[in-house]
């Protein structure tokens, strides 16, 4: 069992040269690495299985070891179906030849959490504390900073930021005592189930942003794109879809709007102004 799990994890993280799917060929469904490989498999395999059954095409669930390599592989066109953070989806649409199908209907936000016994009961209490964050490539990182700047906290220069490789690792830093608080995406907070979570509480939130972006590579054959789109939009009405959205904290797919793009473009500009690719 351990060997089987290890091989499945290696499969999840390994990617060969990209070959766009043809009718009957293998599809690669790429999910950005906001959780550990084992968590990504557990959460997103039901969608992969449904997509494979609905389209009649073998479908492989893949990701990358970290945000940087996921972004590189997205830019290289390594994914046929892409499920990613909203700002990364906007970049893939504008720059890397992906077709944006839409966003999950849930709204996300940065959720600030701390230990219940820490005495931290609001964002003002973070002065002089250590705040764990997902990596700077994550939009939640910048949503958190934007929220703190709104109350003047970073300007006072008395907050230490601790960037972690993923959202769940930022939460774990609080449980391990490496950080006083963490800011993570709402879906991660809702579905983060580890011993010790009951010791944490929410002490603040940011404004909301669109949910996960769902995209197709535009060089997929048109008939393949149509089958995938129909499957993805019908997924929420299936028993598998209902279980999937309950498990992930997400909601069904919706069409994108001009307002979505305008909001995401603001954060893309902020991220690039900070020198982050």
Overview of the structural elements:
The protein is globular and about 55 Å long. The protein is built from 10 helices and 13 strands. Strand 7 (130-133), helix 5 (139-150) and strand 8 (160-163) form a beta-alpha-beta unit. With 277 residues, it is of the alpha/beta class. The protein folds into 2 domains: 2-107 and 210-273, D-Maltodextrin-Binding Protein, domain 2, CATH 3.40.190.10; 110-207, D-Maltodextrin-Binding Protein, domain 2, CATH 3.40.190. The strands form 3 sheets. The protein has a 6-stranded mixed β-sheet, with helices on both faces. It has a 5-stranded mixed β-sheet with strand order 8-7-9-6-10. Mean pLDDT is 89; it is low at 1-19.
List the helices and strands and how they pair.
Elements lengths: L1 H12 L13 E5 L5 H19 L3 E4 L4 H9 L5 E4 L1 H10 L2 E7 L2 E2 L1 E6 L14 E4 L5 H12 L9 E4 L3 H9 L5 E5 H6 L8 E6 L3 E2 L2 E5 L4 H13 L4 H10 L4 E2 L3 H16 L4
Parallel strand pairs: 1-2, 1-3, 7-8, 7-9
Antiparallel strand pairs: 3-12, 4-12, 4-13, 5-11, 6-9, 6-10
Helix pairs in contact: 2-8, 2-9, 4-10
Which structural traits does this protein have?
alpha/beta; 2 domains; 277 residues; five-stranded mixed sheet; single chain; D-Maltodextrin-Binding Protein, domain 2; six-stranded mixed sheet; 42% helix; disordered N terminus; 13 strands; 10 helices
